[in-house]
Specification:
The structure is a single chain. The protein is mostly helical and 82 residues long. The protein has three helices and two strands. Helix 2 packs across helix 3. It is globular, with a radius of gyration of 13 Å.
Length: 82
């Protein structure tokens, strides 16, 4: 079991989903369907297409977070949400 930290928008919009429906989600609409990407390189390529002005380090980190959410997070893992 892993422990994940999730930060959501500062307006509290995620509260109803996270607490009332007992779900976690990502809201990166511009990236598109995350389940269609299988490799870290696919996530990096898509991220750099959408956010073309991002620095290489930001692409690595953000694409890696998306990859891990889709391919490593498991049902039953603990989530910390401030």
């Amino acid at each position: 079991m892993s422990v994940w930290g999730i930060h959501a928008c500062k307006t509290g919009d995620a509260d109803s989903l996270f607490f009332r429906k007992n779900r976690v989600a990502l809201g990166w609409k511009e990236i598109g369907n995350l389940s269609s990407m299988a490799t870290r390189d696919e996530f990096k390529n898509r991220y750099s297409e959408v956010y073309s002005s991002s620095k290489a380090g930001a692409i690595q980190i953000n694409a890696g977070q998306l990859f891990r959410f889709v391919h490593e997070m498991q049902r039953g893992d603990l989530v910390i949400y401030p």
